Structures are given as C-alpha cells and as structure tokens.
Amino acid sequence: MTISVLAAFWAVSFLFVITPGVDWAYAISAGMRGRLVIPAVGGLLSGHLAATVVVAAGVGGLVARSPLVLTVLTVAGSAYLLWLGINMLRQPAVPEAGQAQDSDSWSRWALKGACVSGLNPKVFLLFLALLPQFTDPLAAWSIPAQIIALGLLHALSCGLVYLLVGFSAQAVLQTRPSAAKIVSRCSGAIMIVIAMGLLAEQVFA
Description:
Elements: H1 3-17, H2 22-32, H3 37-56, H4 59-64, H5 67-90, H6 104-118, H7 121-130, H8 143-173, H9 177-204
C-alpha cells in the first residue's frame, strides 16, 4: 500500500467521521456524565474494529448477500438504538459538579458503545463498500491485511474525533445543567430518528 492510497482513504474516511450521527450522540452523552468518555469511545472503536475484522475475513460479503441475516442485523441494531434514544429522552443527562461514577459504569459504557457501533448496519455496510475499494491485489500485503490496516486508520480518526467531541461536551456542558438536558434529549432524538429510518428501510424495501 502506498502513502497516496492511505491519504486518499483517510480523506474519505474522515468525512464520514466528522459527520454527526449515532456515535457523536453517544460520545456527547458520555461526556455529560463525567469520567466516561474514554470507556465509551473505546467501546465505539471496538465495534468499528469488529466490523473491520468481519469484512477482512470475507464474512462481510456473505452477510451482505444474505437478505435474512442483514435484516436481522438491521432490526437488532435499530431496536437497540431506539431503546437508547427513548431512555435518553426520558432520563436526560444532568451533570453535577464533582459527580462520581462507580467502577462498573466504565464497563457498562464500554459495552454499550460496542453495541452502538457494532450493531449499526450502516457501519458494516460502509466498511463493506469502502475498505475493499482501497486495496491492491498486487501489493506485498494480502487483501485482508490491507483491510485491517485501513480499518485501524479509520479507527484512529474515529478515536481522535470522538474523544474531542466527548471531552468538549464535558467541558462545555458540565456546569450548564439546562443546556446539558437539551443536548442529551437532542442526542436521544437523533438515535430514535436513525433507528426509525433503518426500520422504515426494511418495511418499505
């Protein structure tokens, strides 16, 4: 793989990363709840890396060609996003100064982050469509190795942007409970809209 190919992939990938969506909403929600940005972002990245491994292993193509499997994945992911969004609307985050987080919160937020990105069919389909386009069958590295490398580069961009988003939310909204409640509800609404859109695609497809 050449530097020019990596640069081209990074440019395309970065456009997707900086587009607000479910991952942004989750990072913002974690930021408003205190010291949970790192585990939340770590969970999001683990979901992206899992999707990368699935595509690199060749399983991605099989899943994409199986309407039933893809439908089950979409419905499961949509239902999870819908559940998260409704909870955020019902119980918006209201940060308090010096708010403490118990140790179990780290593992819960990491697991939830992995589910948010790992069960998002849009992430999987994006990787399936994007990653193979930047591989070279004549390169010294195998195709799966190239896909893994590209996935890691994408995950690096995701990590930097999501950490910035999460910590920015923490710094700006930590002392503004009313604004934090509005942002939290907006994040929940985004999750609900995306979930409903994914479900509508299945109904009207």
